[in-house]
Amino acid sequence: MRVGRSALNGAPKMIAALGLGLVLTLTACGANSSGGSSGGSAGGSAAPSSGGVKVGVILPETDTSARWEGFDKPMLDKAMRAAGLDPDIQNAQGDEQKFSTLADGMISSGVKVLVIASISSDGGDAVAAKAKAQGIPVIDYDRLNLGGTSDYYVSFDNEKVGALQGQGLAQALQGKQGAQVIQIEGAPTDNNATLFYNGQQSVLKPMYDGGQLKLVANQAIDKWDNQVGGQTFEQLLTGNGGKVDGVVAANDGLAGAIVTVLTKYGLNGQVAVTGQDATADGLQAILRGDQYMTVFKPIQEEADATAKLAAALAKGDTATADQTATQTVNDPKGNRQVKSVLLTPQLITKDNVKTVTDAGYVKASEICVQATQAACDAAGIK
Ligand code: BGC
Q1: What is the signed CA dihedral for 251, 103, 154, 346, rounded to 10 degrees?
Q2: 309 CA distance to ligand 1 centroid (A)?
Q3: Domain ranges of the chain
Protein backbone atom coordinates (compact mmCIF):
# COMPACT_ATOMS: atom_id res chain seq x y z
CA MET A 1 0.00 0.00 0.00
CA ARG A 2 1.34 3.34 -0.94
CA VAL A 3 0.24 6.51 0.71
CA GLY A 4 0.23 9.87 -1.03
CA ARG A 5 2.58 11.38 1.48
CA SER A 6 1.90 14.79 2.88
CA ALA A 7 3.06 17.46 0.50
CA LEU A 8 6.29 17.51 -1.46
CA ASN A 9 8.88 16.65 1.11
CA GLY A 10 11.74 18.49 -0.41
CA ALA A 11 9.69 21.44 -1.54
CA PRO A 12 9.78 24.63 0.40
CA LYS A 13 6.64 26.44 1.42
CA MET A 14 4.32 23.57 0.76
CA ILE A 15 0.94 24.22 2.17
CA ALA A 16 -0.59 21.23 3.83
CA ALA A 17 -4.13 20.28 3.14
CA LEU A 18 -6.39 22.37 5.27
CA GLY A 19 -8.47 20.74 7.93
CA LEU A 20 -8.83 17.41 6.24
CA GLY A 21 -6.58 15.37 8.43
CA LEU A 22 -5.39 13.86 5.21
CA VAL A 23 -5.23 10.31 6.31
CA LEU A 24 -4.89 8.87 2.92
CA THR A 25 -5.05 5.16 3.00
CA LEU A 26 -5.01 4.38 -0.60
CA THR A 27 -4.82 1.02 -2.17
CA ALA A 28 -2.33 1.80 -4.79
CA CYS A 29 -1.53 -1.03 -7.02
CA GLY A 30 1.35 0.74 -8.62
CA ALA A 31 -0.02 2.04 -11.87
CA ASN A 32 3.43 3.01 -12.89
CA SER A 33 5.61 0.36 -11.44
CA SER A 34 4.92 -2.27 -14.00
CA GLY A 35 8.32 -3.76 -13.48
CA GLY A 36 9.14 -3.45 -17.09
CA SER A 37 7.76 -5.72 -19.68
CA SER A 38 8.51 -3.34 -22.50
CA GLY A 39 11.61 -1.69 -21.18
CA GLY A 40 14.56 -3.60 -22.33
CA SER A 41 15.25 -5.08 -25.63
CA ALA A 42 18.43 -6.49 -24.18
CA GLY A 43 21.49 -5.39 -25.97
CA GLY A 44 20.16 -2.11 -27.24
CA SER A 45 17.45 -0.31 -29.07
CA ALA A 46 15.57 -1.98 -31.86
CA ALA A 47 17.02 0.14 -34.63
CA PRO A 48 20.22 -1.12 -36.20
CA SER A 49 23.49 0.34 -35.07
CA SER A 50 24.54 3.32 -37.16
CA GLY A 51 28.17 2.58 -36.53
CA GLY A 52 28.50 5.87 -34.72
CA VAL A 53 29.75 6.65 -31.26
CA LYS A 54 27.88 4.75 -28.56
CA VAL A 55 25.71 6.84 -26.26
CA GLY A 56 23.51 5.47 -23.49
CA VAL A 57 20.15 7.06 -22.66
CA ILE A 58 17.99 6.05 -19.72
CA LEU A 59 14.43 7.33 -19.50
CA PRO A 60 12.65 7.13 -16.15
CA GLU A 61 9.15 5.77 -16.66
CA THR A 62 6.41 4.95 -19.09
CA ASP A 63 3.20 5.36 -17.12
CA THR A 64 3.78 8.78 -15.55
CA SER A 65 3.49 10.51 -18.90
CA ALA A 66 2.97 9.52 -22.51
CA ARG A 67 5.88 11.78 -23.40
CA TRP A 68 8.75 9.42 -22.55
CA GLU A 69 7.98 6.65 -25.00
CA GLY A 70 5.82 8.76 -27.32
CA PHE A 71 8.06 11.79 -27.83
CA ASP A 72 11.43 11.53 -26.09
CA LYS A 73 12.45 8.09 -27.22
CA PRO A 74 11.86 8.45 -30.98
CA MET A 75 13.02 12.06 -31.04
CA LEU A 76 16.25 11.35 -29.18
CA ASP A 77 16.89 8.39 -31.42
CA LYS A 78 16.45 10.46 -34.55
CA ALA A 79 18.46 13.44 -33.28
CA MET A 80 21.34 11.28 -32.08
CA ARG A 81 21.59 9.28 -35.28
CA ALA A 82 21.56 12.52 -37.25
CA ALA A 83 24.46 13.68 -35.07
CA GLY A 84 26.45 10.56 -35.95
CA LEU A 85 25.83 8.80 -32.65
CA ASP A 86 24.70 5.26 -31.98
CA PRO A 87 22.13 5.57 -29.18
CA ASP A 88 21.02 2.82 -26.84
CA ILE A 89 17.79 4.16 -25.35
CA GLN A 90 16.23 2.26 -22.48
CA ASN A 91 13.42 2.93 -20.00
CA ALA A 92 13.77 2.08 -16.29
CA GLN A 93 9.97 1.77 -15.92
CA GLY A 94 9.95 3.56 -12.57
CA ASP A 95 12.24 0.96 -11.03
CA GLU A 96 15.35 2.37 -9.32
CA GLN A 97 17.08 -0.99 -9.37
CA LYS A 98 16.50 -1.32 -13.07
CA PHE A 99 17.72 2.24 -13.62
CA SER A 100 20.99 1.37 -11.91
CA THR A 101 21.37 -1.96 -13.71
CA LEU A 102 20.76 -0.36 -17.10
CA ALA A 103 23.43 2.22 -16.31
CA ASP A 104 25.93 -0.47 -15.28
CA GLY A 105 25.28 -2.29 -18.54
CA MET A 106 25.77 0.82 -20.62
CA ILE A 107 28.94 1.82 -18.80
CA SER A 108 30.46 -1.60 -19.29
CA SER A 109 29.39 -1.70 -22.94
CA GLY A 110 31.61 1.31 -23.52
CA VAL A 111 29.25 4.23 -24.03
CA LYS A 112 31.10 7.49 -24.52
CA VAL A 113 28.36 9.63 -22.96
CA LEU A 114 25.48 8.82 -20.63
CA VAL A 115 22.19 10.73 -20.76
CA ILE A 116 19.89 10.23 -17.79
CA ALA A 117 16.36 11.27 -16.98
CA SER A 118 16.35 9.85 -13.50
CA ILE A 119 13.50 8.60 -11.34
CA SER A 120 14.91 10.45 -8.33
CA SER A 121 17.86 12.72 -7.69
CA ASP A 122 19.44 10.15 -5.39
CA GLY A 123 19.28 7.39 -8.00
CA GLY A 124 20.58 9.76 -10.66
CA ASP A 125 23.43 10.93 -8.45
CA ALA A 126 24.62 7.38 -7.84
CA VAL A 127 24.67 6.59 -11.55
CA ALA A 128 26.37 9.86 -12.46
CA ALA A 129 29.09 9.21 -9.89
CA LYS A 130 29.75 5.72 -11.30
CA ALA A 131 29.96 7.04 -14.86
CA LYS A 132 32.21 9.86 -13.81
CA ALA A 133 34.57 7.43 -12.12
CA GLN A 134 34.96 5.78 -15.54
CA GLY A 135 35.54 9.14 -17.21
CA ILE A 136 32.15 9.13 -18.93
CA PRO A 137 30.47 12.53 -19.13
CA VAL A 138 26.85 12.63 -17.99
CA ILE A 139 24.02 14.84 -19.20
CA ASP A 140 21.01 15.26 -16.93
CA TYR A 141 18.06 15.07 -19.29
CA ASP A 142 14.88 16.96 -18.36
CA ARG A 143 15.27 16.31 -14.60
CA LEU A 144 18.19 17.86 -12.71
CA ASN A 145 19.75 15.58 -10.14
CA LEU A 146 20.13 17.67 -7.01
CA GLY A 147 23.42 17.23 -5.23
CA GLY A 148 24.79 15.51 -8.32
CA THR A 149 27.88 15.65 -10.47
CA SER A 150 26.51 15.68 -14.03
CA ASP A 151 28.36 18.09 -16.27
CA TYR A 152 25.40 19.39 -18.28
CA TYR A 153 21.65 19.72 -18.06
CA VAL A 154 19.06 20.00 -20.85
CA SER A 155 15.46 20.82 -20.05
CA PHE A 156 12.72 23.39 -20.33
CA ASP A 157 12.33 26.42 -18.13
CA ASN A 158 10.39 24.47 -15.55
CA GLU A 159 9.38 27.38 -13.34
CA LYS A 160 7.91 28.89 -16.47
CA VAL A 161 5.97 25.65 -17.03
CA GLY A 162 4.47 26.06 -13.56
CA ALA A 163 3.78 29.75 -14.12
CA LEU A 164 1.88 28.89 -17.32
CA GLN A 165 -0.21 26.39 -15.34
CA GLY A 166 -0.94 29.06 -12.75
CA GLN A 167 -1.81 31.60 -15.44
CA GLY A 168 -4.06 29.13 -17.22
CA LEU A 169 -5.95 28.39 -14.04
CA ALA A 170 -6.26 32.08 -13.15
CA GLN A 171 -7.55 32.80 -16.64
CA ALA A 172 -10.11 30.00 -16.45
CA LEU A 173 -11.37 31.12 -13.04
CA GLN A 174 -11.44 34.81 -13.83
CA GLY A 175 -14.36 36.56 -12.18
CA LYS A 176 -15.17 33.62 -9.91
CA GLN A 177 -14.36 35.30 -6.61
CA GLY A 178 -13.26 32.78 -3.97
CA ALA A 179 -13.09 29.90 -6.44
CA GLN A 180 -11.93 26.73 -4.68
CA VAL A 181 -8.72 25.10 -5.88
CA ILE A 182 -7.11 21.72 -5.28
CA GLN A 183 -3.47 21.25 -6.29
CA ILE A 184 -2.24 17.79 -7.29
CA GLU A 185 1.53 17.92 -7.73
CA GLY A 186 4.27 15.67 -9.06
CA ALA A 187 6.77 13.47 -7.25
CA PRO A 188 8.69 14.98 -4.31
CA THR A 189 11.85 13.26 -5.54
CA ASP A 190 11.67 14.96 -8.96
CA ASN A 191 13.20 18.44 -8.81
CA ASN A 192 10.95 19.44 -11.71
CA ALA A 193 7.89 18.95 -9.52
CA THR A 194 9.30 21.49 -7.07
CA LEU A 195 10.00 23.93 -9.90
CA PHE A 196 6.51 23.48 -11.37
CA TYR A 197 5.06 24.14 -7.92
CA ASN A 198 7.21 27.23 -7.40
CA GLY A 199 6.13 28.59 -10.77
CA GLN A 200 2.46 27.93 -10.04
CA GLN A 201 2.72 29.64 -6.68
CA SER A 202 4.27 32.74 -8.24
CA VAL A 203 0.87 33.30 -9.83
CA LEU A 204 -1.53 31.62 -7.39
CA LYS A 205 -0.17 32.58 -3.97
CA PRO A 206 -1.01 36.28 -4.35
CA MET A 207 -4.50 35.25 -5.47
CA TYR A 208 -4.95 33.00 -2.44
CA ASP A 209 -3.62 35.75 -0.19
CA GLY A 210 -5.95 38.27 -1.80
CA GLY A 211 -9.00 36.02 -1.51
CA GLN A 212 -9.68 35.77 -5.25
CA LEU A 213 -8.98 32.05 -5.01
CA LYS A 214 -9.25 29.69 -2.07
CA LEU A 215 -6.81 26.83 -1.64
CA VAL A 216 -8.60 23.70 -0.46
CA ALA A 217 -5.60 21.36 -0.44
CA ASN A 218 -2.27 20.77 -1.99
CA GLN A 219 -0.90 17.27 -2.34
CA ALA A 220 2.25 15.84 -3.91
CA ILE A 221 1.97 12.43 -5.57
CA ASP A 222 4.76 9.94 -5.06
CA LYS A 223 6.34 8.76 -8.29
CA TRP A 224 3.88 10.84 -10.31
CA ASP A 225 1.56 7.83 -9.99
CA ASN A 226 -1.48 8.83 -12.02
CA GLN A 227 -3.79 6.36 -10.36
CA VAL A 228 -2.83 7.49 -6.87
CA GLY A 229 -3.28 11.05 -8.08
CA GLY A 230 -6.90 10.32 -9.01
CA GLN A 231 -7.59 8.57 -5.71
CA THR A 232 -6.01 11.38 -3.72
CA PHE A 233 -8.04 13.94 -5.61
CA GLU A 234 -11.24 12.02 -4.98
CA GLN A 235 -10.60 12.00 -1.22
CA LEU A 236 -9.88 15.70 -1.20
CA LEU A 237 -12.98 16.42 -3.28
CA THR A 238 -15.34 14.41 -1.12
CA GLY A 239 -13.62 15.80 2.00
CA ASN A 240 -14.54 19.25 0.72
CA GLY A 241 -18.19 18.34 0.28
CA GLY A 242 -17.83 17.67 -3.44
CA LYS A 243 -16.95 21.29 -4.17
CA VAL A 244 -14.12 22.39 -6.42
CA ASP A 245 -13.79 25.02 -9.15
CA GLY A 246 -10.24 24.51 -10.31
CA VAL A 247 -7.59 21.81 -10.14
CA VAL A 248 -3.88 22.26 -10.67
CA ALA A 249 -2.83 18.93 -12.15
CA ALA A 250 0.93 18.92 -12.69
CA ASN A 251 0.73 16.96 -15.94
CA ASP A 252 -1.72 15.48 -18.43
CA GLY A 253 -1.49 12.04 -16.85
CA LEU A 254 -2.65 13.32 -13.48
CA ALA A 255 -5.21 15.54 -15.23
CA GLY A 256 -6.67 12.48 -16.95
CA ALA A 257 -7.10 10.66 -13.65
CA ILE A 258 -8.70 13.76 -12.15
CA VAL A 259 -11.10 14.20 -15.07
CA THR A 260 -12.16 10.57 -14.59
CA VAL A 261 -13.08 11.39 -10.98
CA LEU A 262 -14.83 14.62 -11.97
CA THR A 263 -16.82 12.67 -14.56
CA LYS A 264 -17.86 10.16 -11.89
CA TYR A 265 -19.33 13.06 -9.88
CA GLY A 266 -20.89 14.75 -12.90
CA LEU A 267 -18.50 17.70 -12.59
CA ASN A 268 -16.38 17.34 -15.72
CA GLY A 269 -16.54 20.37 -17.96
CA GLN A 270 -17.47 22.61 -15.05
CA VAL A 271 -14.09 22.51 -13.34
CA ALA A 272 -10.93 24.07 -14.78
CA VAL A 273 -8.14 21.49 -14.86
CA THR A 274 -4.55 22.20 -15.87
CA GLY A 275 -2.02 19.83 -17.41
CA GLN A 276 1.35 19.49 -19.08
CA ASP A 277 3.02 17.59 -21.96
CA ALA A 278 0.46 18.19 -24.72
CA THR A 279 -0.31 14.49 -24.95
CA ALA A 280 -3.01 13.16 -27.25
CA ASP A 281 -5.24 12.38 -24.25
CA GLY A 282 -4.69 15.83 -22.76
CA LEU A 283 -5.42 17.61 -26.03
CA GLN A 284 -8.52 15.52 -26.57
CA ALA A 285 -9.75 16.43 -23.07
CA ILE A 286 -9.14 20.09 -23.88
CA LEU A 287 -11.16 19.84 -27.09
CA ARG A 288 -13.95 18.07 -25.15
CA GLY A 289 -13.92 20.88 -22.58
CA ASP A 290 -12.87 18.61 -19.69
CA GLN A 291 -9.37 20.07 -19.31
CA TYR A 292 -8.63 23.78 -19.62
CA MET A 293 -5.01 23.84 -20.67
CA THR A 294 -1.79 21.96 -21.14
CA VAL A 295 1.82 22.99 -21.59
CA PHE A 296 3.46 22.15 -24.89
CA LYS A 297 7.16 21.42 -24.55
CA PRO A 298 8.62 20.90 -28.03
CA ILE A 299 10.66 17.86 -27.11
CA GLN A 300 12.38 17.66 -30.49
CA GLU A 301 14.30 20.78 -29.39
CA GLU A 302 15.27 19.07 -26.15
CA ALA A 303 16.40 16.00 -28.07
CA ASP A 304 18.34 18.06 -30.61
CA ALA A 305 20.19 20.03 -27.93
CA THR A 306 21.01 16.82 -26.09
CA ALA A 307 22.31 15.15 -29.25
CA LYS A 308 24.47 18.17 -30.04
CA LEU A 309 25.93 18.19 -26.53
CA ALA A 310 26.48 14.44 -26.51
CA ALA A 311 28.23 14.53 -29.90
CA ALA A 312 30.59 17.21 -28.63
CA LEU A 313 31.26 15.52 -25.30
CA ALA A 314 31.89 12.17 -26.99
CA LYS A 315 34.82 13.86 -28.72
CA GLY A 316 35.95 15.57 -25.55
CA ASP A 317 35.04 18.87 -27.18
CA THR A 318 33.92 20.82 -24.13
CA ALA A 319 34.33 24.14 -25.96
CA THR A 320 31.46 23.26 -28.32
CA ALA A 321 29.46 21.82 -25.44
CA ASP A 322 29.88 25.06 -23.50
CA GLN A 323 28.78 27.05 -26.54
CA THR A 324 25.62 24.95 -26.63
CA ALA A 325 24.85 25.03 -22.91
CA THR A 326 25.10 28.75 -22.33
CA GLN A 327 22.64 29.00 -19.45
CA THR A 328 23.13 27.82 -15.88
CA VAL A 329 20.82 26.48 -13.24
CA ASN A 330 21.48 26.44 -9.57
CA ASP A 331 21.60 23.13 -7.76
CA PRO A 332 20.75 24.27 -4.24
CA LYS A 333 21.61 20.91 -2.71
CA GLY A 334 25.02 20.59 -4.35
CA ASN A 335 25.53 24.34 -4.08
CA ARG A 336 26.75 24.49 -7.66
CA GLN A 337 25.86 26.00 -11.02
CA VAL A 338 25.18 23.49 -13.79
CA LYS A 339 25.71 24.42 -17.45
CA SER A 340 22.35 24.17 -19.11
CA VAL A 341 20.11 24.45 -22.11
CA LEU A 342 16.67 25.63 -20.99
CA LEU A 343 13.98 25.68 -23.65
CA THR A 344 10.73 27.59 -23.79
CA PRO A 345 7.37 25.98 -22.98
CA GLN A 346 4.09 27.13 -24.46
CA LEU A 347 0.58 27.50 -23.03
CA ILE A 348 -2.06 25.56 -24.97
CA THR A 349 -5.81 26.01 -24.61
CA LYS A 350 -8.69 25.11 -26.91
CA ASP A 351 -7.78 28.12 -29.07
CA ASN A 352 -4.34 26.88 -30.10
CA VAL A 353 -4.37 23.08 -29.94
CA LYS A 354 -3.61 23.33 -33.63
CA THR A 355 -0.08 24.50 -32.76
CA VAL A 356 0.69 21.00 -31.53
CA THR A 357 -0.81 19.17 -34.49
CA ASP A 358 0.84 21.59 -36.93
CA ALA A 359 4.18 20.89 -35.28
CA GLY A 360 3.62 17.19 -35.93
CA TYR A 361 3.67 16.04 -32.29
CA VAL A 362 0.15 14.65 -32.31
CA LYS A 363 -1.92 13.64 -35.31
CA ALA A 364 -5.41 15.02 -35.90
CA SER A 365 -6.64 11.42 -36.03
CA GLU A 366 -5.46 10.90 -32.43
CA ILE A 367 -7.53 13.75 -31.05
CA CYS A 368 -10.42 14.27 -33.44
CA VAL A 369 -12.98 11.66 -32.46
CA GLN A 370 -16.74 11.80 -32.30
CA ALA A 371 -16.83 13.82 -29.09
CA THR A 372 -14.31 16.38 -30.36
CA GLN A 373 -15.00 16.54 -34.09
CA ALA A 374 -16.94 19.80 -33.90
CA ALA A 375 -14.13 21.41 -31.88
CA CYS A 376 -11.55 20.10 -34.35
CA ASP A 377 -13.55 21.52 -37.27
CA ALA A 378 -13.89 24.87 -35.54
CA ALA A 379 -10.14 24.96 -34.87
CA GLY A 380 -9.27 23.87 -38.40
CA ILE A 381 -7.56 20.72 -37.17
CA LYS A 382 -7.60 18.04 -39.82
C1 BGC B 1 8.61 16.01 -16.72
C2 BGC B 1 7.18 16.10 -17.19
C3 BGC B 1 6.47 14.77 -16.92
C4 BGC B 1 6.69 14.31 -15.48
C5 BGC B 1 6.15 12.91 -15.24
C6 BGC B 1 8.65 15.60 -15.26
O7 BGC B 1 9.94 15.53 -14.78
O8 BGC B 1 9.25 17.26 -16.92
O9 BGC B 1 7.14 16.41 -18.56
O10 BGC B 1 5.11 14.91 -17.15
O11 BGC B 1 8.05 14.32 -15.15
O12 BGC B 1 6.76 11.99 -16.06
Answers
A1: -20
A2: 21
A3: 53-156+298-343, 158-297+347-379
